[in-house]
Amino acid sequence: MSEMRAELVRKLWHGHDPFEGFDPTGIKVDMQGWGSTHPYLVTSVHEIRPALIIEVGVWKGRSVITMAKTLRALGIPGLVLAVDTWLGSSEHWAIPNMFADLRMKQGYPSLYQTFMANIIHEGLQDLVLPLPLDSGNASVLMRAHKIRAQMMHIDAGHDYRSVANDILQWWPLLESKGIFIGDDYRVDGHFPGVRRAFDELAAAGGLELEHAPTKCRIRKP
Fold first, then answer.
1. Rounded Cα distance, 81 and 206, in Å
2. Is 88 inside a domain boundary?
3. Is 77 helix (H, G, I), strand (E, B) or coil?
4. Residue 27 is assigned to a structural domain of this protein
5. What is the pTM of this model?
6. What distance in Å separates the CA atoms of residue 158 and residue 150, rounded to the nearest whole number?
7. What total of structural domains would you count in the chain?
8. DSSP code of 37?
9. Other C-beta atoms lying within 10 Å of the C-beta of residue 168
10. Environment class of residue 175 by beta-carbon count within 10 Å: exposed (0-12), middle (13-18) or buried (19+)?
11. Which of 13, 12, 53, 61 has its CA nearest to residue 34?
12. CATH number of the domain residue 122 falls in
């Protein structure tokens, strides 16, 4: 276990590892995701060798797995902190076929159990920690504990207000020289709020924004 992981278990989980005693028996491994193996998620780890990566908006964990596997392959004693409520977003509740993906049990989504089982299936428990909070409360907790990351992947809400709020909350918690990655940055008219929010971040700071299909990336001065 890395020093970073041990520190966060102590601070955020009050010493109780969330994977301890979790039984994945009977939980189907499900690696469904979108853009979860994007080159930015891999090349950014190679570039800055982060001790802490924070992903906001996790779903079933496939992109977390991509980044954690890269840490492992490079021998980096780092950690991916996975921030999500695991309750889905508005579109998952509004669209029937997406609602089915929530795998309801007694009216409550079981995404968290799927995520945990996926991480265990890949043997990545020592490189991953879940934080089951909404974006705003999670960022407050990070500030309270003075926790900052070298790399972030923002993939929660897709409307302008949600994305702008995530940027407002998390950009200050990224260390200098860190990399900020946004998901669903599109130039084809889909998710215009995502593009607008990240464009505004870059413009306000005079920062370079690069993008490749479905994601953007900004380096913090």
1. 29
2. yes
3. coil
4. no
5. 0.95
6. 23
7. 1
8. T
9. 13
10. middle
11. 61
12. 3.40.50.150
Cβ-based neighbours of 8, under 8 Å, separated by 6 or more: 79, 81, 129, 147
Domain that holds residue 215: 3-13+37-219
Phi, psi of 64 (to 5 degrees): -55, -45
How far apart CA 55 and CA 120 sit, in angstroms, is: 18
Question: Residue 175 phi/psi, 5° resolution?
Answer: -70, 155
- For residue 163, give the amino acid letter: V
137 vs 56: CA distance, rounded Å: 12
The one-character DSSP state at 10 is H
> Phi, psi (5° rounding) for residue 103?
50, 65
In a 3-state reduction of DSSP, which class is residue 216?
strand
Please indicate, yes or no, if residue 23 is contained in any of the structural domains: no
Strand extents, DSSP E, 149-213: 149-154, 174-185, 209-212
Q: What is the pLDDT along the chain (221 residues), one digit of tens a residue?
A: 789 999 999 999 999 999 999 999 999 888 877 879 999 999 999 999 999 999 999 999 999 999 999 999 999 999 999 999 999 877 778 888 878 778 888 888 879 999 999 999 999 999 999 999 999 999 999 999 999 999 999 999 889 999 999 999 999 999 999 999 999 999 998 999 999 999 999 999 999 999 999 999 999 99
